[in-house]
Amino acid sequence: MSFKHLFMKSSFVKAPIQNGIGRYVGQLQRITVKFCKEHSDSKGVRDFIENQVVDFAKQNPGIVVYLKPRRHRAPHVKLEYLNGETEILSAKCLSERELRQWLEVARGSSGEPVARLRKMQHTDRPSIQGVWTPWTNVPPQTNLETFPSEEGYRAPQREQTATEKLRELFARQQEQKQLTEETTGTS
C-alpha cells in the first residue's frame, strides 16, 4: 500500500468561478520554453520548436508562447496560469511528442497544485465498491466522440423500477374498473 497521500497537501475542490458557463476560459496564460541550442538534452525541445510550436500557438491563441535559448542549461518549460500559480516542467531528454503531450495536459489544467481531495463526511468502514461519479456508467465510446455530436449522448435505457411497475398496474386496474362500471351501467 502506498503512503504517498500522507505527504500531499490536502484541500477541498476548488474551481474557477463560473468557468464554462457562457464560455470556457482556458487557465493557462503563458508558456516560456528555455532550451540550449547545442546540448543533446534539448533535442526534443528543439524538434518541437522547429516542427510544432507554430501550430500549437495557432491552435491556442489565448496562450502566449515565449522561446528563450540559454547556453549550457537543462531545458525546462515554465507554465503560468491565470490564478497566479506557476509550474516548472523539466524537459530534459523529452521527445517532441512527449513535450507536446505535456503541454496539452497543462493547457487543460487549472493550475491548482495537485492535492489530496478531502470530503465532508467520514466513515470507519469505507465502501469497497468505490466512489460513484457522473461518469461511472457512461459507455467508453463517448471518450472518442467529438462534442457536440449529431447523435448526442443517450443514457442507457434503465429497467423499470418496482414502484413504477406497481403504479402502472394500479392505473390499468383503475381503467378496467371504470370500463366495467360503464358497460354494466352502475355508477
From TrEMBL:
GO cellular component, one term: mitochondrial large ribosomal subunit
Keywords carried by this UniProt record: Mitochondrion, Ribonucleoprotein, Ribosomal protein
Subcellular location: Mitochondrion
InterPro entries with a match to the protein in the record: Ribosomal_mL43, Ribosomal_mL43/mS25/NADH_DH, Thioredoxin-like_sf
SMART domains hit by this protein: L51_S25_CI-B8
Ribosomal protein/NADH dehydrogenase domain: residues covered: 37-110
Family annotation (Gene3D superfamilies): Glutaredoxin
Pfam families named in the record: L51_S25_CI-B8
GO molecular function: structural constituent of ribosome
Superkingdom per UniProt: Eukaryota
Chief subcellular location: mitochondrion
BP GO annotations: mitochondrial translation
Record-stated family: Belongs to the mitochondrion-specific ribosomal protein mL43 family.
Protein name: Large ribosomal subunit protein mL43
Gene (name only): MRPL43_1
